[in-house]
Design goal:
Strand content: 25-35%
CATH topology of the largest domain: Rossmann fold
Structural class: alpha+beta
Number of domains: 2
Largest sheet: 12 strands, mixed
CATH class of the largest domain: Alpha Beta
Shape: globular
Helix content: 10-25%
Number of strands: 23
Oligomer: single chain
Distance between the termini: 31 Å
């Protein structure tokens, strides 16, 4: 179990991170500059929090009240940096072996070279291997040290799409086999959803509370969480019992349950919007402003017919070639898919 409850000020930026995670990978999801990497550095011992406490499997890594601050080498925390931080003058084998216990270096290096399919490049230096091989080498080096937790700082950000998906699967399998706390920092909700079963949302330096991925997508609660979870349509709203008014669109939508009085906005996911017809539940008329072709569908930009000029557009996917700019259509969404947000 990894327990984090810390505060750290860097200039005008204030970090407040509070969460716990067990043996399943946790996604720390947030926009760039929100404090995700700062949190990892504090856990690893690279940065010192101003106050708070970090505990890993019952061992206190940091406690400001008790003046405990273990150095990085004593924390048993592996850190996969964005740029991998391999030793340039060492071979792949040497990069892995150097992290292992002295008496087991050759054995551990051979084992991890096989596991990560690096045997053919074992005697190469980092500059002689691909980005994907560099990442596998960096992860193998972390595992060679037999850490009690692994931190991953946007590990796929430097890779192209094809390689990213391939290595994402490899990382996911490695973390599942690791069976210890791991924290995966990302701003990509798709990556987070595929790789982690739990998520902690971070916004403007504040991270608190861990939720399941299913809960995040079904009920994001806040506008910022909905945006980070990939909700494409966000609009201001006023709760009216089981209905919610959308003044900027001039419509009302029914919800599955009474909306909380704190509701200030609605979220409508593209995947839940359906082509419909007049008279259907939660149906409203729109005009196509733009139809942008994608690989297997069209991305439609719509304006509700009753919308105010300053109202936001609505986005949804449709069958390729089905609709064009200027077309009129009816759109609907099931009440259980209307996300009420604060």
């Amino acid at each position: 179990m990894l327990s984090v409850d810390i505060q750290k000020r860097l200039g005008d930026f204030q970090l407040q991170a509070r969460f716990e995670t067990g043996d399943s990978p946790l996604a720390l999801l947030g926009a760039s500059g929100c404090g995700k990497s700062v949190t990892l550095r504090c856990i690893a011992g690279i940065l010192r929090p101003d106050q708070g406490k970090i505990v890993l499997n019952g061992r206190t890594l940091f406690d400001s009240a008790r003046h405990i601050d273990l150095p990085p080498q004593r924390r048993k925390v592996g850190y996969l940096f964005q740029q991998y931080a391999l030793f340039p003058n060492m071979t792949v084998r040497q990069n892995i072996a150097v992290a292992a216990e002295k008496g087991r270096r050759a054995e551990r290096a051979a084992e991890l070279l096989r596991r990560f399919h690096l045997e053919d490049v074992a005697e190469h230096r980092p500059r002689q291997i691909s980005g994907g091989q560099q990442q596998r080498t960096a992860l193998a080096r972390i595992l060679a040290s037999e850490p009690e937790a692994i931190l991953l700082d946007e590990p796929l950000s430097a890779l192209d799409l094809y390689l990213r998906r391939q290595l994402e699967e490899e990382l996911r399998c490695a973390l599942d086999a690791f069976c210890a706390p791991s924290v995966w920092v990302t701003h990509d909700q798709g990556e987070a959803c595929r790789s982690c079963r739990q998520v902690c949302i971070m916004e403007s330096g504040t991270a608190s509370g861990v939720r399941s991925m299913e809960d995040l997508f079904a009920d994001p609660i806040s506008v910022s969480a909905a945006r980070l979870s990939g909700c494409e349509n966000l609009v201001g709203a006023v709760p009216r019992g089981t209905e919610v008014q959308i003044p900027l669109w001039g419509i009302s939508l029914r919800c599955a349950a009474p909306a909380a009085q704190e509701t200030t906005a609605l979220g409508l996911r593209m995947q839940h919007l359906r082509l419909s017809r007049e008279g259907m539940e939660n149906a409203f008329a729109c005009r196509v402003v733009q139809s942008a072709p994608e690989a297997f569908s069209d991305l439609l930009t719509l304006r509700p017919l009753s919308a105010a000029p300053e109202g936001p557009m609505l986005h949804m996917e449709a069958e390729k070639g089905l609709l064009s700019a200027g077309d009129l259509l009816w759109v609907s969404i099931a009440p259980e898919h209307v996300l009420t947000l604060r």
